[in-house]
Automatic annotation (TrEMBL):
GO terms for biological process: protein transport; vesicle-mediated transport. It is a multi-pass membrane protein. Pfam families: Got1 (PF04178). This is Vesicle transport protein. Keywords: Membrane, Protein transport, Transmembrane, Transmembrane helix, Transport. May be involved in fusion of retrograde transport vesicles derived from an endocytic compartment with the Golgi complex. One of its GO terms (cellular component) is endomembrane system. The lineage of its organism: Eukaryota, Metazoa, Ecdysozoa, Arthropoda, Hexapoda. Its main location: membrane. Belongs to the SFT2 family. InterPro entries: Vesicle_transpt_Got1/SFT2, Vesicle_transpt_SFT2. It is found in: Membrane. The chain crosses the membrane at residues 76-97, 109-129, 141-165.
Length: 174
């Protein structure tokens, strides 16, 4: 009995050693951890690094943030809620594509509101002030002004002036 147990434990040890040698070879994903570290802040923990990178770490007391009283879970729920509403509105607007010539105003209003909700969802992850600083950085300022200008102009021409031609051009820009 003891001889068979020793043989089984020896076989098990050999099997484990062979598997370690097989699995120690570098694979496709072996460098992921090293590559991530160069892009993340150095807090010592990958979860904390990701939270710092995306503005989720310890912002409960940050007075410069629009969501300063929301914890991480509430921010993520807000993000997914606004993103879901935005995607729903974008999908609803796609139903008007076949009759775009007849219902361009309805399409543009629903599409623009879907864009606004989707874009606003990011403020829950970043916080309002960090996201505003990100959008107004010198490399993104022109894009931000053009995007928001086209959003507001599209809504203005769709709701107030009800101009089909201007609305179509602004939708294309948006």
């Amino acid at each position: 009995m003891s001889v068979s147990v020793n043989l089984e434990s020896d076989e098990l040890s050999e099997y484990l050693i062979e598997n370690r040698e097989k699995n120690s070879k570098p694979g496709i994903f072996s460098n992921i951890n090293l590559n991530l570290k160069q892009y993340l802040p150095k807090t010592g923990n990958i979860e904390n690094d990701l939270a710092v990178r995306f503005g989720l770490a310890g912002n409960e007391n940050n007075s410069g943030s629009w969501c300063f009283k929301l914890n991480r879970k509430e921010r993520i729920v807000g993000f997914f809620t606004f993103l879901s509403i935005g995607v729903l509105l974008l999908m609803l607007s796609s139903l008007y594509i076949p009759v775009l010539l007849l219902k361009a105003r309805k399409f543009s209003i629903i599409f623009t509101m879907g864009s606004v909700f989707s874009f606003t969802s990011l403020t829950f992850l970043w916080g309002a002030m960090p996201f505003f600083r990100h959008l107004t950085s010198p490399t993104r300022l022109i894009f931000t002004l053009m995007y928001f200008g086209s959003l507001f102009a599209t809504l203005f021409f769709a709701i107030s002036l009800q101009s089909y031609i201007c609305n179509s051009v602004l939708l294309w820009i948006e």
